[in-house]
Amino acid sequence: MLVLGRRPGEYVLIDNNIMVKVVKSDEGHLRLAIDAPKHITIVRGELLEDRKMEFDKAE
């Protein structure tokens, strides 16, 4: 895992086609803008955790 410090307005580029940009930062909260091709699926981590918990309960 790569851990970076970024300030508002700064960004990282992943594989030359996914840009993750910090658009706001205050008091420990960040707002990120993610620009990626439409075929790339972007899912928030808490949604993945919810799905995993539901799957585990079903077993």
TrEMBL record:
GO molecular function: mRNA 5'-UTR binding
Main subcellular localisation: cytoplasm
Electron transport is among the record's keywords: no
Record GO biological process: bacterial-type flagellum organization; mRNA catabolic process; negative regulation of translational initiation; regulation of bacterial-type flagellum assembly; regulation of carbohydrate metabolic process
Signal peptide range: none
UniProt xrefs under PANTHER family: CARBON STORAGE REGULATOR (PTHR34984)
Record function comment: A translational regulator that binds mRNA to regulate translation initiation and/or mRNA stability. Usually binds in the 5'-UTR at or near the Shine-Dalgarno sequence preventing ribosome-binding, thus repressing translation. Its main target seems to be the major flagellin gene, while its function is anatagonized by FliW.
HAMAP family: CsrA
Quaternary structure and partners: Homodimer; the beta-strands of each monomer intercalate to form a hydrophobic core, while the alpha-helices form wings that extend away from the core.
Family: Belongs to the CsrA/RsmA family.
Name under which the protein is recorded: Translational regulator CsrA
